[in-house]
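[Discussion] Sanity-checking designs against the backbone

I'm trying to build intuition for which residues belong where. Below is a structure token string of 601 positions. I'd appreciate it if someone posts a full sequence so I can compare it with mine line by line.
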């Protein structure tokens, strides 16, 4: 047809007009560019990881303590929520001085939590439901009741240097006086050094006295850590969240066996027994630790390929500055490290007083420093920090969950965040956290206690919130469980849980799983996050993080086209999913968040 029209045009002398017409027709009919092909992602790269604190999730036997069978019985909840993997805080045998982070047997299950058979049943059911299982691994230290410590204290060959042992520092004024080897302060308060009468030396403990630090300059220790991980991989674990990695190494003593003292930090509000009174240049973030992490990654990858399994992940707990944190991903020599170090910036740097510019900065900060080709992650709470709605404001729950789910990479949810659980009150009499007991008293213990964020999960409004049939639970159930519980939110027309479900479903959209991002503060209090991918629907989150109403303009926002459809809204919002937004501005109540869908860019 094109050639025929062109010939006729030449014959009638209408060359110019018809040539222009033909060119115009060709331009109009040029095929639209196909959307990009989506690369397959590994299971962990865009998943939601749900952290379970086993003592507080679900009690199956009525002793007031959560257990493995309880977790197994509620795995469908994770599927219903849209979660892809569960991470359990330590379930290994322990005297429970630090509730599982003081491990006495790295190869067995703690009896309060169940048996190895219970663990195997949990893994089998989780895998049948499409859930991955990540274990909390604690290589920095072991319980002083472990056979490692008992043998090392007795100087048994092969174990003599398993822990950090030191002679007393000489006292020039009194040779008979026994001084601690250095002024280093434990994370739980007081000196890191504890005297062993049996061995006649001090051992180092960066946490509780009952948690002796391994000596990672001993090859036998490094080998044993890999042996332990291999054991649990063979039991079906899909990876490890590795605890307290920044503390693996300490500065060595000089040629006379003398350890250097830490400089004082200058913080006048702390007493000499509190962490932070001194700097920590000698007890954390030493460069040697990264090599150990890289070796672990190699060991895990080797096991994975030898056994032809899905990826096994290594996730690092690393409270450190941004430069040190990024080293966990790998180094300039090409050595690969953790799949990711946990990103705690939303916990450590933001609170209820933060504005939209603060939020935008924190997001860009991580994504700017993260080495190219790696995967980001976002964490809003955990078992060591005040719960998300208590650190921020309760009316921000849906907005914070929306931000977590719409940002690129992995989203991490601490149990209860999907229903907006807040810190529970735990009296001094009910306090069990060693950090609070060591550093506080009846007047100030809550400044140090981690118990309020560990209170039992709220399943329903029955006795003990459906957590346990026991008359007394290991920590008291929060008093607001009648108001905030899963069953009530399932029954409600609108709830935090139903918003959470919408958000986890949205993560399957190409713009969220594979797309780019744009983030900015539209006003001092309204944050904008856009996720876009050419050829696919665009998604935008507008979130008023302030404590009063705000108005923001949308007409000059990049990558966003009208009309916009609301796909998720805060439970207190006057708007509902399905509403269409066509005007160039948007008014948001305090804490209100709206997720909008726009046409492809």
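Best answer:
Here's mine. Compare freely.
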């Amino acid at each position: 047809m094109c050639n025929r029209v062109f010939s006729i045009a030449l014959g009638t002398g209408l060359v110019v007009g018809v040539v222009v017409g033909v060119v115009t027709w060709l331009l109009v009919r040029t095929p639209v560019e196909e959307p990009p092909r989506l690369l397959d992602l590994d299971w962990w790269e865009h998943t939601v990881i749900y952290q379970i604190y086993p003592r507080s999730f679900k009690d199956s036997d009525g002793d007031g303590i959560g257990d493995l069978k309880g977790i197994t019985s509620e795995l469908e909840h994770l599927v219903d929520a849209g979660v892809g993997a569960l991470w359990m805080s330590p379930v290994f045998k322990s005297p429970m001085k630090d509730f599982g982070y003081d491990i006495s047997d790295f190869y067995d299950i703690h009896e309060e939590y169940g048996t190895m058979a219970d663990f195997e049943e949990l893994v089998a059911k989780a895998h049948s439901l499409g859930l991955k299982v990540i274990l909390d691994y604690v290589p920095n230290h072991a319980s002083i009741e472990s056979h490692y410590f008992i043998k090392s204290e007795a100087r048994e060959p092969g174990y003599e240097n398993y822990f950090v042992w030191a002679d007393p520092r000489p006292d020039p004024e009194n040779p008979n006086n026994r001084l601690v080897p250095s002024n280093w302060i434990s994370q739980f308060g007081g000196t890191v050094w504890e005297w062993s009468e049996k061995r006649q030396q001090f051992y180092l403990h960066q946490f509780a006295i009952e948690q002796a630090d391994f000596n990672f300059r001993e090859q036998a220790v490094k080998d044993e850590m890999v042996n332990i991980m291999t054991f649990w991989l063979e039991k079906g674990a899909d990876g490890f969240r590795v605890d307290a990695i920044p503390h693996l190494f300490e500065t060595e003593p000089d040629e006379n066996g003398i350890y250097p003292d830490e400089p004082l930090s200058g913080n006048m509000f702390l007493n000499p027994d509190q962490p932070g009174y001194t700097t920590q240049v000698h007890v954390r973030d030493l460069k040697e630790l990264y090599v150990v992490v890289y070796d672990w990654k190699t060991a895990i990858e080797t096991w994975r390929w030898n056994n032809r399994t899905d990826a096994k992940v290594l996730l690092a707990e690393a409270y450190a500055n941004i430069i040190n944190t990024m080293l966990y991903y790998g180094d300039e020599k090409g050595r690969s490290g953790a799949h990711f170090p946990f990103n705690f910036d939303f916990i450590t740097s933001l609170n209820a007083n933060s504005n939209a510019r603060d939020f935008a900065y924190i997001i860009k900060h991580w994504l700017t420093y993260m080495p190219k080709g790696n995967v980001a992650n976002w964490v809003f709470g955990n078992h060591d920090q005040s719960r998300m709605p208590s650190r921020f404001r309760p009316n921000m729950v849906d907005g914070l969950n929306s931000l977590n789910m719409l940002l690129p990479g992995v989203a991490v949810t601490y149990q209860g965040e999907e229903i907006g659980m807040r810190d529970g009150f735990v009296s001094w009499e009910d306090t069990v956290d060693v950090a609070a007991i060591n550093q506080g008293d009846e007047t100030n213990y809550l400044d140090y206690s981690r118990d309020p964020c560990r209170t039992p999960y709220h399943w329903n409004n029955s006795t003990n919130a459906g957590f346990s049939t026991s008359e007394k639970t290991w920590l008291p159930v929060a008093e607001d469980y009648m108001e905030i519980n899963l069953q009530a939110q399932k029954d409600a027309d609108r709830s935090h849980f139903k918003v959470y479900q919408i958000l986890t479903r949205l993560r399957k959209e190409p713009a969220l799983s594979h797309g780019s991002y744009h983030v900015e503060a539209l006003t001092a209090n309204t944050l904008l996050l856009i996720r876009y991918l050419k050829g696919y629907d665009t998604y935008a989150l507008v979130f008023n993080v302030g404590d009063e109403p705000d108005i923001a303009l949308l007409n000059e926002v990049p990558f966003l086209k009208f009309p916009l459809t609301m796909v998720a809204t805060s439970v207190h919002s006057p708007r509902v999913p399905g509403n269409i937004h066509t005007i160039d501005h948007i008014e948001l109540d305090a804490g209100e968040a709206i997720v909008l869908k726009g046409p492809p860019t």
